[in-house]
Amino acid sequence: MSKKKTGRIVLEVVMILLSLVFLYPLFLTIINSFKTFKEVMTDVIALPHSFTFENYTYVWKFINYPRLFLNNTIVTVLGLVGIILISSIAAYKLARTKSRTSLVIYFLCIMPMLIPFQSIMLTVMQMAKSLNLSDSTWGLGILYWGFGAPLALFIYHGFVKGIPKEIDESATIDGASGFRLFFSVIFPLLKSVTTTIVIIDVMWIWNDFLLPLLMVNGSPSTKTLTLAAYTFVGQYTSDWQYAMTAMVMAVLPSIIVFIFLQKYIVKGVVAGAVKG
Amino acid sequence: MKLGRKRAEKLEFGIFTLPILISVIAVFYYPFVMTIRYSLTKWNGISKHPKFVGLDNFKQIFLGDTNFTHATWFTVKYAILYIVLVNVLAILLALVLDMKLKSTTWLRAAFFIPYILSLVIVGFIWKFIFMQGFESLGVSTGWSIFGLSWLGKPGLAFISVLLVSIWQSIGFYLVIYIAGLQSVPDDLKEAATVDGAGPFRRFFSVTLPLLAPSITISVFMALTNSIKVFDVILSLTGGGPGGTTYSVAYDIYRDTFQNNLYGYGTAKALILFVAVLIITIIQLTIFKRREVEA
Description:
CATH superfamily of chain B: MetI-like
Strand order of the largest sheet of chain B: 1-2
Low-confidence stretches of chain B: none
Number of helices of chain A: 13
Number of domains of chain A: 1
Shape of chain B: globular
Helix content of chain A: over 70%
CATH topology of chain A: MetI-like fold
CATH class of chain B: Mainly Alpha
Oligomer: heterodimer
Helix content of chain B: over 70%
Largest sheet of chain B: 2 strands, antiparallel
Mean pLDDT of chain B: 89
CATH architecture of chain A: Orthogonal Bundle
Shape of chain A: globular
Radius of gyration of chain B: 25 Å
Strand content of chain A: under 5%
Strand content of chain B: under 5%
């Protein structure tokens, strides 16, 4: 028994060491964001001589961080709200209506999951231009409706089928119908799937790169966080201390959110993968 | 009265489903049809009228495009190694984390963190580690492994891209396998122990078969993600050294947006679509068959 116990302790220590090695690149990124250029060049793994926020104030102003943060928030929230609204309401109607039209529309809407984005990126860009959706933060958010809808519809559809029809009927007797029936009776019942969709879509839209690169790269005022970090590093290839600062500023919001909502995020990601 | 109700129902059906239909048609179907159209043309994106050239683009791609051949080979090699390695490593880690160590919560969080980061940023972070960090690590440890040119030699650059992708995403597969392991009943494992099965026997004849649904999901996700690999290569190697780390998606991006070969690029994009479609259909068939057996 005690031999087994020692084995467990050894395993525990090995695993903790492994996890520290695993996260070491992130640690190096953080400490180097506090160094001067000379310090980065002489020794990357040494701790900074003094903790100053000079790099941060410089990059903060240079890339206009608050603006980027606001842009990211607008795109993510607008995209997310749209995806959830159009998908949940359609999923409800399509799952409740047993007809050929309903089935055709359902498959038409989930099939695009098979189309890789790179296959249509050029023509998406042109379509967005002709609809005046390009070069605009709001336009980018709206584009995510279509891109996010197939998976969301698929997940919602599977869930609505499990909600007994009697609930609709009793609500109808109480005088609720149409939008009111959906928003006050059905939508609250979808809470657990909605959480899953919120988590996977926020992670996707917040970090997305290629679509923003094609849509809003024209002006500094419309850029997203990841995109701005990308262009910034491109300009400062040798000034690693600024590059690392920009990296930290780009990923910090995600890490903070993850620390607080870890349990939900992991659960949502697993649920999304299993259902999708 | 009855006719009116029916009409109202139809109207409601329309109102509820039209928004999603319009959105999906706008970003998928319309662009897709246009992709097919452009793939039959020669066009630099500037002139008003793309020149119709029939199937010439496809002929050229299949007969004499070494870039595309290289990119395809890179992507196939990358996808196979990525799928195998990320799944094997994730299963091993999940087995350890399922042993209910005291630090399990920390470990799970630690391995998951890179997954919440943007791939482009992850590429840059590792570029810094490979270029600057390894130099310092080599000096302080004296290990020659840190002295290698991880981004400068073709073979090593391939391994770097692979390692960084695995580093970023292993947490995702890990949590799927942990969830899968938790659904394996403990008494089943105990029964196997009573029957005299050692840990390896127990793993291969009890745990692994019961993990099959998780493996299917993970392989599926790993495959779909790896054939479209792009972001991480863009920031880590930029396709280099000597153009050896271009993936198919990156090759399409290069032709369309950097070389302004709009027609030619979309033809490649269409080939990517067909490849993804075929692979998905094969996967779904295998998936279905296994479900029937279970």
